[in-house]
Amino acid sequence: VQLVESGGGLVQPGGSLRLSCVASGFRFSVSYMNWYRQAPGKGLDLVCSISNDGTTTSYTDPVKGRFTISRDNAKNTLYLQMNSLKSEDTARYYCGDNFGNRGQGTQVTISS
Questions:
Q1: Radius of gyration (Cα) for the chain, nearest Å?
Q2: Least packed by Cβ within 10 Å: which of 55, 67, 85, 108?
Q3: Are 36 and 48 in contact (CB under 8 A)?
Q4: In this predicted model, what pLDDT tens digit does every residue of 59-85 receive, in sequence order?
Q5: Phi, psi at 87, each rounded to 5°
Q6: What percentage of residues in the chain have a pLDDT greater than 90?
Q7: Which spans in the chain are helix H?
Q8: Which pLDDT score is estimated for 71?
Q9: Residue 1 pLDDT
Q10: d(CA 103, CA 80)
Q11: pLDDT at residue 80, as a whole number
Q12: How confident is the model at residue 26 (pLDDT cuts 50, 70, 90)?
């Protein structure tokens, strides 16, 4: 299993970012997928999830209405569109499946 995240960076509050996660080594199209984040000095938190066919999604309350998870099974790619970013969204973001596999993450820093 290999998961490679990209798209992180430094943006100002209120800005947007789109994260991507390219998956390989497993049947991505039949796998529920998740985005997690870990803020400095804190534990790993589940941010959002998506069903294998993309029809069902769920979000943690702090990101509802601002983040959108999606996937392209033809490209084996998971996405996270993040809008109206806040300083408290600063964290390292990871994609992962329901079996404990995660990538190396991509850093998102929200600061003016």
A1: 13
A2: 55
A3: no
A4: 999 999 999 999 999 999 999 999 999
A5: -60, -35
A6: 100
A7: none
A8: 98
A9: 95
A10: 14
A11: 98
A12: very high
Give CA angle at 27 (25, 29), nearest 5°.
135
Query: In angstroms, rounded to a whole number, what is the distance separating the alpha carbons of residues 103 and 87?
Result: 23
C-alpha span between 78 and 101 (Å, rounded)? 14
Q: Alpha-carbon distance 92 to 19, whole Å?
A: 11
**DSSP strands (E only) in the chain:** 2-6, 9-11, 17-24, 33-38, 44-50, 57-59, 67-72, 77-82, 91-97, 106-110
Residue pointed to by tokens 């990209």? 6
* Contact (Cβ atoms closer than 8 angstroms) between residue 69 and residue 19: no
Count other Cβ atoms within 10 Å, centred on residue 1.
15
